[in-house]
Design goal:
The protein has 16 helices and 15 strands. By secondary structure, the chain is an alpha/beta fold.
């Protein structure tokens, strides 16, 4: 037996053992594992990647148009990141974050403080993922309000259909009923307002432009609950859940900023997806020209080569946690100030992850990946609009940078949606069979999401457009909206 044959045999043996483990031992996230009890239903198991392409255990190649899960921003195969992680792991694999730090964590915090659109300076609290970052930001907001002498400021305002994570606090501000329904009662005080969704806006979709009635709902919620009861407002720059939804007006976030300034409510931008180049700027807040109080990040901070998240906080707010309690402060206020931020995570600021993030930032800045996202995102969107200009089943193409949603409809003229989950699943299967990994989001109206690595090429964009025309046209034939041919197919 040759060396190559022996290697192939070992790989086959490992794959067979792994498939058995998936049926018997692995518990995949948000997956009904019963589907894998049938040996003929083989899981998709990836074994290697390079650039924007993944390969499964059978050698099939896939163009990853989801960048892992909105996260491998710098692309696969970045040896520079791996070498930085290896070097750090050999020197110092772990530091207790409770009162200690590491060189890469300190370096990364300084870089993020300067890059973040928070007035030129920030303090950085490290986590190990997006849900933890949101959880941290919520706790930070509530303790901050307590320190200011507002013990009843515990309520939060977020948007319906929005996704902010799976830990209990993050789940509470989630706006997805299905994600929340099994785990009640959740954290008290979580309030939800309509999202700003120009294509589906119940207030102004027939108007000539956004009337900002969606913002008015936030203001009304604050008035109804009482400004002295609300700790924070949390939104994404471009809302992921529901399908890449930017605000209907560029004034939307500016008005939230003004409201927070007037009331003392903290403004949180959840940039777990939109941060680190995704929208064409290093941070999504920059794209919309707004300065929040807190930014939550994860995913693209290391391009997902290692788990890491970070909560970036305006220095003025962070400094409040170091100030002595004023004379005559009540016991809760005094204790909240004396403690510092009463929160910690074992793997927050893990030195190997921070080394990965520093190397990832080097790549992003040297290669101007945010600028590349703006350029390639513009190109991809123009090609999509040209290809689907008259397609009866494409209602809206939206997003920013390389975060694009294609909303599918049963009728383009009436904007009637379709709720056939089987057809949507068949659409995803068809795309995957053609060698493309895409997400078809059914958490609001059916939307195909494109969120590829920021290094995607024009040729790969062209391949993507051709595939989408073919698969969405096939869907249209099943819906009965397209005959035997479509000019774009």
């Amino acid at each position: 037996m040759t060396i190559v044959q022996a290697s192939d045999e070992r790989n086959r043996s490992r794959s067979e053992a792994a498939e058995t483990s998936i049926r018997e031992n692995v518990w995949l996230h948000y997956t009904q594992m019963a589907a894998y009890q049938n040996p003929e239903n083989r899981p998709l198991m990836m074994v290697k990647a390079e650039g924007s392409t993944l390969w499964d255990a059978d050698g099939n190649a896939y163009l990853d148009l989801l960048a892992g899960i909105y996260s491998v921003n710098a692309g696969y195969g970045r040896r520079r990141i791996v070498e930085a992680m290896t070097e750090q792991a050999m020197a110092l694999p772990f530091v207790n974050p409770f009162g200690y730090t590491s060189l890469p964590a300190a370096e990364l915090a300084a870089r993020l403080a300067q890059l973040a659109p928070l007035g030129g300076d920030a303090r950085v609290f490290f986590t190990s993922g997006g849900s933890e970052s949101v959880e941290t930001a919520l706790k930070l907001s509530k303790q901050c309000q307590m320190m200011r002498g507002y013990p009843n400021r515990y309520k939060t305002i977020s948007r319906r259909v929005a996704w902010h994570g799976t830990t209990i606090g993050a789940l509470s501000v989630n706006g997805l009923t299905g994600a929340r329904s099994y785990f009640g009662p959740l954290i008290p005080g979580a309030r939800h307002v309509p999202m700003s969704h120009r294509y589906r806006c119940p207030y102004c979709q027939n108007a000539g432009g956004c009337t900002l009635a969606c913002y008015d709902e936030i203001e009304r919620m604050v008035e109804f609950e009482g400004p002295d009861q609300v700790a924070c407002i949390i939104t994404e720059p471009v809302q992921n859940s529901g399908g890449c939804i930017p605000p209907g007006s560029p004034e939307y976030f500016q008005k939230i900023r003004t409201l927070c300034d007037q009331t003392g409510i903290l403004m949180i931008m959840d940039e777990v997806i939109c941060g680190f180049g995704r929208l064409g700027r290093m941070f999504g807040s920059e794209y919309f020209g707004v300065t929040p109080d807190i930014i939550t990040t994860a995913k693209g901070i290391t391009s997902s080569y290692a788990p890491l998240g970070a909560v970036l906080v305006r220095k003025g707010i962070a400094d409040e946690f170091a100030e002595a309690a004023p004379e005559g402060a009540t016991a809760p206020v005094r204790e909240a100030r004396d403690t510092g931020f009463a929160h910690g995570l074992t793997f927050g600021g893990h030195p190997v992850s921070c080394a990965a993030a520093n190397a990832n930032l080097d790549i992003m800045l040297e290669e101007d990946l945010p600028g590349r996202a703006a350029e390639m995102g513009g190109y991809l969107r123009r090609e999509l609009e040209a290809a689907f200009g008259s397609h009866p089943n494409v209602g809206d193409i939206r997003g920013a940078g390389l975060f694009i949603g294609i909303e599918l409809v049963a009728d383009r003229e009436t904007r009637e949606s379709f709720r056939n989950a089987q057809l949507l699943a068949e659409l995803s299967d068809d795309m995957r069979a053609r060698g493309f990994i895409v997400r078809s989001d059914s958490r609001n109206d059916p939307t195909t999401q494109l969120c590829p690595p920021l290094i995607i090429t024009r040729e790969e964009c062209d391949q993507t457009v051709r595939m989408l025309v073919e698969t969405i046209t096939t869907l249209g034939r099943k819906l009965g909206t397209i005959g035997t041919s479509f000019a774009g197919a």
